[in-house]
Design brief:
alpha/beta, 278 residues, binds manganese (II) ion, 42% helix
């Protein structure tokens, strides 16, 4: 049974980004519940930007889960990256993500490494960048395991990283480095740019998929682009995926309507034996 999730960003300076809700948690979490979501995914400036006790109380009151926590603000706001040529920046990136793993783990929520993976920078050997990446993934995954959560590694499209871009390459990366306790994030928007077939990519990655970002081809809520969402969700059904479909989409035309459209699409696509018209 797949579960529904909606994103909340608490970083006002990134207001044009792909997150459905933007208001503070006291407003956004009840809204998410009212629309019917099973959980929320949080994007915050850092691990200490949110009062964890207050969050725990809100989640308990609304009976809604925390599905995952994003780490992207480490890159966007603080310029950190796991593959920076600067050792000090890599160290800070590592610390930033470690703190985010601890924050999420209190709620059983994994941290997501997306843009924090960085890029093969100028004057850095490609093999060196990958050694930094896999070394960090290994250590961070071990820390996550000690906190009883997995670590999520997201494949991004070519305009956002020059490391790797497809699910199959993510599977290979983890296998070859012998890294465990890392699951892959299948972001449908990125996959629409990079994969030959979204359905085949999902089926081939199988149990390695641990989280899904649910968005249409243009990053708008599902149903507002040309994504064949029915076949993507059918493939997730084929692999027995029981995690979240998390709406990491633009708040188009506005947060409330984006949330409602996402919920409609989620219900249509996950309803068994029915046509998905989203
Ligand atoms: Mn994503």
């Amino acid at each position: 049974m797949m579960k529904s999730c909606v994103t909340i960003s608490l970083v006002p300076t990134l207001r044009k980004g792909p997150w459905i809700f933007w208001d503070d948690l006291e407003v956004s979490i009840p809204k998410a519940k009212r629309v019917g979501f099973d959980a929320v995914e949080l994007f915050t400036a850092s691990a200490d930007a949110v009062d964890a006790d207050g969050l725990a109380e809100l989640l308990a009151t609304e009976r809604i889960g925390l599905a995952a926590v994003g780490t992207g603000a480490g890159k966007v706001l603080h310029g950190l990256s796991l593959t920076s040529a600067d050792a000090d920046v890599r160290r800070q990136a590592h610390e930033y993500i470690t703190a985010m793993i601890d924050f999420g783990a209190r709620f059983g929520a994994p941290a997501i490494i997306g843009s924090m993976q960085g890029n093969v920078e100028k004057d850095v050997e490609r093999a060196q960048a990958f050694a930094w990446l896999t070394g960090s993934l290994r250590t961070l995954a071990e820390h996550a395991a000690a906190c009883n959560v997995t670590l999520i590694y997201e494949l991004l499209n070519r305009y956002e990283t020059n490391l790797i871009n497809r699910l199959a390459d993510g599977v290979t990366l983890l296998e070859e480095a012998g890294i465990t306790n890392v699951k892959l994030l299948a972001d449908l928007f990125h996959m629409n740019i990079e994969e030959v077939s979204i359905g085949d990519a999902i089926r081939n990655a199988g149990g390695q998929i641990g989280h899904v970002h649910f968005a249409d081809s243009n990053r708008r809520p599902v149903g507002n682009g040309h994504m064949d969402i029915k076949s993507a969700v059918a493939a997730l059904g084929d692999i027995g995926y029981s995690g979240y479909l998390s709406a990491e989409a633009l708040p188009w035309p506005d947060p409330n309507r984006a949330a409602e459209q996402t919920m409609r699409a989620f219900q249509e696509c996950t309803r068994s034996n029915s046509e998905c018209s989203a």
